[in-house]
Each structure stands twice: as C-alpha cells, then as structure tokens.
Amino acid sequence: MRILVLGGDGYLGWPTAMYLSAHGHEVGVLDNGLRRQYDHELGAGSLVPIESMATRVRAWREVSGHALRSYTVDLCDADALYAALRDFRPEAVVHFAEQRAAPYSMIDRKHAVHTQVNNVVGTLNLMYAIGELDRDVHVVKLGTMGEYGQPNIDIEEGWLEVTHKGRTDRMMFPKKPGSFYHLSKVHDSHNLEFGCRIWGLRVTDLNQGVVYGQETPETALDPRLATRLDYDSVFGTVINRFAIQAVLGQPLTVYGGGSQTRATIDIRDTVECVRLACENPADRGEFRVFNQATEKFSLTEMADVVARAYPGTAEVVKVDNPRVEIEDHYYAFTHTALESLGLQPHLLSETLLTSMFAVIRENEHRVDLEAMRPVVDWRRAANQAPALRL
Ligand code: NAD
Ligand code: USQ
C-alpha cells in the first residue's frame, strides 16, 4: 500500500514509517519540524541524539534499500497539504502530526490556543483534502486514551449503547479529558466522526495509552535511525522518565498520591497496531475506534516496576501534583479489536527496561536536570515564563 505518515519526524512517526516500509509498503513522511522547534523554545531536547529528516531518509535507504518520500509541510497550510496528497496519492494516511504534550498545552493561553489550533485545524484540513481529492483514503488517526478520562464505568472502544427513558441509541463514548491537549483530541474525534457521516470518509481513531520504550527493530539497525527519547517535564512521558530518573540516581517522581491509573503500550506495539489498522481499513463511512493500549498501571506500580528492574534506583518520592487529576478511581477499558486483528502485545517487563537502561546510560551526560523538574501547574492560568525558560 502507499501510506503517508504525517508527523513522520516524531517519537512514534519515525519508527512507524520505517516499520511500514520494512513490511513492504511504499511510505512517505510528512512533517513541518515543529517538535524540534519546541525543543528550542523549552531549552530541552531528546536524550538520544537524532538526525535531521534528510539524514534519516538517506540512512534508511542505505540500510534497508527502501526509499521514503519526504515532505516538509505544515498541516495548517491547506494548499501545501493538498499538493503533497496529490503528489503522493496515498491509500492510507497515518496522522501523528499534532502538539502532543498535555503540560505544553497548559502553560498559558498562548500555548492552549496554539495546541488546539494546530491540532484541530490540521485535522480539519486533512479531512477536507481527502473529502475533495479521494474519499477512499483511509485515515488512521492517533487519538488518546486520555480522551475518556477516568469514568466510573467500563471504557468501551469509542462507542456506547445507551438506554435512556426506555429508548436506546449508539452514542460516542462520553469524554472527560484532563488537559487542553487531550481536549483537542476529543474535538478531532468529533470532527472525524462527522466527516464519516457526511462524506463517507473511512477513519480509524486509535485511542492510544501512554507509550514507553525507545527501540524498535528498525531504529536499532543504525544509530542514525534512532528515534527521540524525551525526559523533560513537559514532553517526557511517565515510564520513560522513571527509567531515566532511575539510571541518573534521581528520585522517581510520582505526582500526587500515586493511585492514578493509566493505560500503557510498548512502542513496538504502537508500530504494529498502526500496520494492522492500515492493512485492515475501516469501511466507507465508518468511524472505527480501537483502544490502543495493552495494560494498565497505577503511577506507584509503574515506579515500582522500574525500581525493581534497576537495582541502583534511588527512591520513589511523591511530589505535589502539578496537574488536576482524580486519584482513587475505577479504571477498566476494553481492548480487544487490535488483538482480534492479530496484535500479540509486549507487556511491560524488566527485559525491555534493561535494554532501555543501556541506551539511557550511553547518553546520560546529555541530561539537563533542571529540565526534569515539573514546572507547569494546571491550577495557574499563566505559568511563569522564567521558570519555563521560554
Ligand atoms: P511527537 O511530538 O514526537 O511527534 C509529532 C510530530 O508531528 C512532530 O515531529 C511534529 O513536528 C509533527 N507536527 C506537529 N504539528 C504538525 C503540523 N501542523 N504539520 C506537520 N507536522 C506537525 O509526538 P509522538 O509522541 O510521536 O506522538 C505522535 C502522536 O501520537 C500524537 O498525535 C500524540 O497525540 C499521539 N500519542 C502519543 C503518545 C505518547 O505517549 N507519545 C500516546 C498516545 C497518543
Ligand atoms: N506523571 C508522574 N510523574 C512524572 C510524569 C508524569 O507521576 O514524572 C504522571 C502524570 O501526573 C499522569 C501520568 O503520569 O498521571 C501520565 O503522564 P504523562 O506525561 O506520561 O502522559 P500524558 O500527559 O497523559 O500524555 C502522554 C502523551 C500524550 C498521550 C497520552 C496518552 O504525552 O501524547 O496522548 O500520554 S493518555 O495518557 O492515555 O491520554
């Protein structure tokens, strides 16, 4: 298949592009380099050095023999997006290209507005481009488990049959997200579902849990093919941060009481789930939702798994929660759709963490400890610029 990966320069987009290419697909990567600009803005960066998009594409051709067509395009620039789609003529588009950090969206008004405009407008432009150019293109969109929040009922895969006052309907599952970023994903889901109803688009919304890990079979082939690993308090995700804190001999920082429970997934399963979704497209007019997460852990359990796997771990500490989150809550979610397509999940194990510890040790000299300190407070409408070094 011809598959265009939007956000193909990111943490997940780059390994996914190589994985799809290694599986025989003709792959294009599209990105506007925004994620690299956030690094400059925040004075942070990937723990593992990453190459430019041009070097990555060249290295992949040398190592695998497969070409990737690369587009430098902002999804918010509709003309450029239409031109890229006309040129590449994809059968599937995998859409990773959004501002994806909850803390970034909570810095202040400017960052909340940027997040929602970038994400919602980019997705709307994509919908219109496909609506006008070729409605058979399957959109595989990265959503997030955080769209649902932590409801006191089981989380279904996107849809819920509701009986109210004796009548029954199939509704989109109610959402209660926890940041302006997570809200942008909810808005995307609603827009995409509407596009399926009015234009007969084919959409798969992958509600993914928190991803951990840094290596996939393809990134491990050559150091130039490495994907990024974020450790700062704005973009670093929790299990990756705990692993880095363990190696650095820093306390593992559990926010709040630690009973908050989150859905998780190994990066090697992310790339496989996207392949499965692309190769088994949604029907015309179908808004299909898969919960792309394989396990759940409380924050304390995550810290304990990491601490057990790394004998030198300093300690697990509970710090004041900079976010507004519910702590003692019910959490159960259905995740059978991807498994029924053939996903064989990698579960969080000491094996994966051990390989990650080695990567972290090699690069620990690159860590700026100051960037690890949580600085974005959900309760404040405007977080102070100096603390963020913006
Ligand atoms: P990332 O920030 O590393 O990658 C996103 C890429 O999209 C970046 O390279 C960025 O430059 C690009 N991009 C952003 N806006 C763009 C625009 N307007 N035009 C063109 N390119 C643009 O993020 P990631 O961790 O790889 O996440 C990818 C997707 O997966 C996101 O949509 C995120 O919401 C979702 N997701 C991530 C996780 C996780 O734990 N990392 C978990 C669940 C869902
Ligand atoms: N947390 C800690 N200590 C830390 C960092 C985070 O306890 O040092 C806690 C947070 O309070 C939160 C949980 O860990 O309860 C997850 O935080 P996170 O930053 O790892 O993840 P989150 O903000 O939810 O966002 C990440 C990705 C986002 C994706 C989401 C999936 O950045 O793109 O959508 O995971 S989900 O959580 O399912 O919505």
Short characterization:
With 390 residues, the chain is of the alpha/beta class.
The counted number of beta strands is: 14
Bound molecules: nicotinamide-adenine-dinucleotide, sulfoquinovose-uridine-C1,5'-diphosphate
Q: What is the overall pLDDT average?
A: 96
What fraction strand? 15-25%
Q: Find the CATH superfamily.
A: NAD(P)-binding Rossmann-like Domain
Can you put this structure into words, describing what you see?
With 390 residues, the protein is α/β, with parallel strands linked by helices. It has one domain (2-374): NAD(P)-binding Rossmann-like Domain (Rossmann fold), CATH 3.40.50.720. It is built from 13 helices and 14 strands. It has helices at residues 13-22, 34-42, 53-64, 78-88, 102-105, 109-133, 180-199, 238-248, 267-279, 299-309, 337-340, 350-363, 385-388; strands spanning 2-6, 26-31, 68-72, 92-95, 138-144, 159-164, 167-172, 202-208, 210-212, 252-255, 261-266, 287-292, 295-298, 316-319. The strands form 4 sheets. The protein has a 7-stranded parallel beta sheet, with helices on both faces. The protein has a 3-stranded mixed beta sheet with strand order 9-11-13. A two-stranded antiparallel ribbon has the order 6-7. Strand 1, helix 1 and strand 2 (26-31) form a beta-alpha-beta unit. Helix 1 (13-22) packs across helix 9 and helix 8 packs parallel to helix 10 (299-309). The longest helix has 25 residues, at 109-133. The protein is globular, with a radius of gyration of 20 Å. The termini are far apart.
